[in-house]
């Protein structure tokens, strides 16, 4: 499920709707949550909390290399295994090889396709 405003993709329609609401309010006074480490802003506190976990590995690069040895040369994201890196690379190439049989949506990983298929079961 793709946001028509910015192109971000989501496996669940509820996640897409929540994201689309961020485009409705361009009020500069709107509450945002800013990362005190890198300055990136989020509209939801839970998103900031998840983002801050990415900085934990930066504090100990040796531990980060052990936990996530497969690094993307294009954006620097690191992954636990080569399969996750390969799925991630599909984002950069625009190739989404895991296609839904019930609608035209494609995904960069089988995991996301399976989550998407649950949305068809719920109706």
From TrEMBL:
GO terms for biological process: regulation of anatomical structure morphogenesis; regulation of multicellular organismal development. SUPFAM superfamilies: beta-beta-alpha zinc fingers (SSF57667). InterPro entries: Znf_C2H2_sf, Znf_C2H2_type. Residues 1-28, 33-60, 70-97, 98-123 form the C2H2-type domain. It comes from the Eukaryota. It is found in: Nucleus. Its main location: nucleus. The keyword Metal-binding applies. The keyword Zinc applies. GO terms for molecular function: DNA-binding transcription factor activity, RNA polymerase II-specific; sequence-specific double-stranded DNA binding; zinc ion binding. GO terms for cellular component: nucleus. Keywords: Metal-binding, Nucleus, Repeat, Zinc, Zinc-finger. This is C2H2-type domain-containing protein. It comes from Pristionchus entomophagus.
């Amino acid at each position: 499920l793709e946001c028509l405003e910015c192109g971000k993709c989501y496996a669940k329609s509820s996640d897409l709707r929540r994201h689309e609401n961020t485009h409705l309010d361009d009020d500069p006074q709107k509450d945002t949550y800013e990362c005190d480490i890198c300055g990136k802003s989020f509209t939801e506190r839970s998103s900031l909390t998840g983002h801050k976990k990415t900085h934990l590995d930066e504090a100990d690069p040796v531990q980060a290399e052990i936990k996530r040895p497969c690094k993307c040369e294009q954006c620097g994201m690191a992954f636990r295994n080569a399969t996750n890196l390969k799925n991630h690379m599909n984002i950069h190439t625009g190739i989404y090889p895991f296609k839904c049989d019930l609608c035209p949506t494609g995904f960069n990983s089988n995991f996301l396709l399976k989550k998407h298929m649950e949305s068809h079961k719920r109706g």
